[in-house]
Amino acid sequence: MSEEVGGGSVREVRGGKYDVLVVGAGIGGIYSAYRLSQLGLSFRVLEAGSGVGGTWYWNRYPGARCDVDSLDYSFSFSHELEQEWTWKERYATQPDILAYFNHVVDRFNLRKYFIFNSRMASAIFDEIAAVWRVTCGDDQYEARYVIMATGYLSSPLEPDIPGLKDFAGECYFTSRWPKHEVDFSNKRIGVIGTGSSGIQLIPVVARTAAHVTVFQRTANYSVPAQNGPVDPELLKDYRARYKEIRAAERSSWLGTYWATFEVNTKSARTVSDEERLREYEWRWNRGGQGFMVAFSDIMTDLEINKTCGDFVRSKIAEIVKDPVKREALLPPQEDAFACKRLCVDTGYFETYNQDHVKIVNLRKDPIVRVESDGVRTSQELHRCDVLLLATGFDAFTGALTRVDIRGLGGEKLKEKWKAGPVSYLGVLTARFPNMFHVNGPLTVVGNGVTTTEMLVDRIVELMLYSEESKFATIDTSEEAEIAWRGEVLEAAKTMPALFGCKSWFFGANVPGKPSMFMMYFGGLATYHERFRQVAQQGYRGFQFTRRNP
Ligand code: N01
Fold first, then answer.
1. Average pLDDT over residues 229-248
2. Mean pLDDT, the chain, as a whole number?
């Protein structure tokens, strides 16, 4: 971290005592910095990377872009910012999003609060002083509150594939992509993983590589992005009505504006087969996640869900010419449509029509091991010069349990969550007082920016309530967190499609991780209404202790 000392010069300051420590310089960290800078509390933001951006800092793989419309995927806290920043494309690229976050940090003079290249190793609660003692390398911090703005998809999942370390060529994770350019030209590339990251990466790699072998364990549903320049009329409309649009986002289910997401409130059961197919066709041509809301019952009615899945399978079958590749790329009939987060692609299935792009169906021909010169499956050795791993994340809990966090009585968070995480309203877990999670386990689903802004607002309000009441600590009870976990599960049950396959929503992608639904699907507006009611009742479910006189 650097601190201004006058005349524009700076000096390094690490360690120290603050009211609040924020961990993570992604969307949650940046917005927390903005909110805290307005409040007169002392704070710093610790970040393992060398810059801001969080997920958009680390996932800088070729082809990375957001699949939420850029006009929606942006901060709402400043009218001026909304008017000044111009998004180029409907779906912004990773470099554009990173440039936006850097602009926000500088525009609001927040950079001085960030301490980069500082990975939190431990946070131990000191019960006598009622403070967290946080260690980052040699640096020691003390803070009354800690906001873990570490996100739910930040802890990379290293696949348990024998021999991975023996590979002699270049090997990169999409989730930790290097800053230098990776040259694929004239090289044989192996890609493991076909979730959102792999699906974005593969078409771009195939443009220059001599040969691409995709190792696919599960074929995924993906719909076209139909990306393009931002529609100038839409931009004009947003700029004129941003206030109203943001209010609509906040009161929506997913934090996206209906005009860009085109939510259809009709049940597919009320329309003819022709109308249903027309709607799907229109959505396919329109592109994007809006496909999921083609009808009100796609996620709630498994028969309707199947019509949607069949439609997407028919489209994939139309696109992919080679019958063997086609068969491999069709999502399994038994997987519900959008049971995993829906992927959005640009030319993904078309890429397989190129002769130099091959797919290995790991369900028929599994990986045996990685060798120095390639990937050996049960049938052959696939020689590769470069190996790319798009194998996902230890979602929700990874960022919090892979560091040493200890609460009351020295209890380890990792131990507490051994059988699955619990937390009240997704923001705090009992016996770990004054430590908040932004997008931790059991948080609410939605557009990453809108959701995060709203979560940080709720956390800051709770902290201010505690400060004004002269409380020392904010905690919760086991009853409250178990009840919240029940609410999360009940909300998920209204969408049986979510249970239609194994996904990171359950932690099912991590070997040995207890399977438990970890995201509140009751809707963003409902979640915040619930939080508001809790606040109105003196923060019912939270527990407070008084400061020593
Ligand atoms: O990760 P994933 P991701 N051997 O977990 C495979 C967000 N995101 O980084 O399905 C072989 O979805 C695994 O196979 P299987 C978005 O929320 C957003 O792609 O488990 N394969 C799967 O194919 C997304 O949902 C954006 O059978 C192995 C893949 O690796 C989330 O991040 C862009 C394996 C992992 O897919 C995660 O997406 C990117 C093994 N041992 C990401 N282990 C946008 O905004 C794992 N796999 C567009």
1. 94
2. 95
